[in-house]
Amino acid sequence: MQTVDVAGDTPAALLGHYVGGAPLPGAGPYLPVTNPATGRQVRQVACATRGEVADAVAAAAEAWPAWRATTPLKRGRILARFRELVERDAQRIVAAITEEHGKTLDDARGELARGLEVVEYAAGAPELLKGEHAREVGTAIDSWSEFQPLGVVAGITPFNFPAMVPMWMFPMALACGNCFVLKPSEKDPSPALMLAALLTEAGLPRGVFNVVNGDRVAVDALLEDPRVEAVSFVGSTPVAEHVYRHGSAAGKRVQALGGAKNHAVVMPDADLDNTAAALMGAAFGSCGERCMAISVVVCVGDEVADALVRRLSARIAELRVGPGQAEGIDMGPLITAEHRDRVRGYVDLGVREGAQLVVDGRAATIPGGEGGFFLGACLFDRVTSAMRIYREEIFGPVLCVVRVDTPAEALALVNDHEYGNGAAVFTRDGGTARWFADQARAGMIGVNVALPVPVACHSFGGWKRSMFGPLAAYGPDSVRFYTRRKTLTQRWPGEVVERARFAFPGSATAQD
Ligand code: NAD
Questions:
Q1: Is there a contact between 269 and 427 (Cβ–Cβ < 8 Å)?
Q2: Candidates 169, 215, 246: which one to mutate for ligand 1, based on the most atoms within 8 Å of Cβ?
Q3: pLDDT digits 0-9 by tens, 215-241
Q4: pTM for this one?
Q5: Residue 382 belongs to domain with CATH number
Q6: Are residues 440 and 473 in the same domain?
Q7: Is residue 118 part of a domain?
Q8: Which of 54, 475, 480, 481 has its CA 20 to 30 A from that of 467?
Q9: Contact assessment for residue 110 and residue 286, using Cβ atoms and an 8 Å cutoff
Q10: Ligand 1 neighbour 257 (Cβ under 6 A)
């Protein structure tokens, strides 16, 4: 008999699934879960078979009629209770995030806090679902739209935010009256299992929220299961596109958020000290493994570029790199040895492509980081748009500076790039900021804000190949994504018997 440790805090733990309100051992096979700061395996996670995925979907489908009938007020109260329980257990969850992902404890706390903002928003379910009403659309006729849940919906999430990205999805889906099957990243699966147990403790009925762990087998099983009405995906662009195409072809509603290459444009009038500080966090926080990370800085004019590169180089020299568990660390390791080698390969490539490597993090030695997947911060100057290090998502601590002569050239770079998740402009001029925000082809714009991640009452989504599907994550878009509009038109006949009408009822003549 396998042991399943939902808390996942013993090294030998085998992590299974969470189905029907309880942990469920996996049939296997198992994948190693590694602490990226040490390179050591800390637990193993089951890969769900198609049959196990089908069982989880069945549990969700069985729970749905009762959950659909539960009032939005009660659903909201369960989410509010869940929020309190996550706060209570925050230290344990944060420790698991850091252990399996590698990010610093502070960063993990921030991730959890941003996820909880979505829970708070979702707890207002009665307000979110109250619908739209129009009186007297014709004489004595009222009309309204209400928003009904879809049924069973699935979420597939990436490694880089193992608590927050699932919380972009399930709180809103549950608030709207759906049942949920989550497939978290196999690289850091513990936080999702912890959240599942807390939802049950908060009073969520069995089967309303389920977790299946695993890899592409589980993903494809969810995409092909006819009982799954909608799929939310966050991850890399090739997989996002695969999920979008296959899910849509199977008749499902799909939102698929993909990769990014976010530009920060620095105008000649920018406050360079504040800009450099903001860019350091946005480029190297979480070791650059954020879809909103700034990976390209476009400097308008050589003077700005020289001054900014000087400032960034000085700050990188002070960056404290080490195990995320240790206090006072700014940047932890990358997620796996393979990914570290891939990112390092991009740095080698940039040198071959002719970019100027101003700060080389490849040889950085990390005290206490032996065996971990560390890479020091790297800064390239004189990168051009023809280079692969500019065009491709690296997803690591590599910042590329591109030099242009005019604001129009900077904007053209932002707009011509295949990705359009976020973009930022640094300037003291309101007109320039307004022009950039209006013209930039990206979904989330920062003005003197390097990481413009929308708060929970807005929605998160990119443009171009950073997002597939019309509706973004959380916020108002997700209420529309997780519900189906139904529009009612109502009239109660009076005592007079109406004559039959054969013309199409237009508003000018309606029931006059
Ligand atoms: P990934 O695409 O490798 O994995 C995401 C999910 O898809 C995981 O659950 C994984 O198990 C599954 N998966 C992986 N390969 C698959 C395949 N071939 N078929 C079906 N499923 C598959 O992404 P990742 O490495 O975990 O995360 C990093 C990527 O996610 C980056 O590209 C980053 O930009 C992106 N990301 C985007 C956003 C956003 O909001 N746009 C947010 C976070 C991360």
A1: yes
A2: 215
A3: 999 999 999 999 999 999 999 999 999
A4: 0.95
A5: 3.40.309.10
A6: no
A7: yes
A8: 54
A9: no
A10: yes
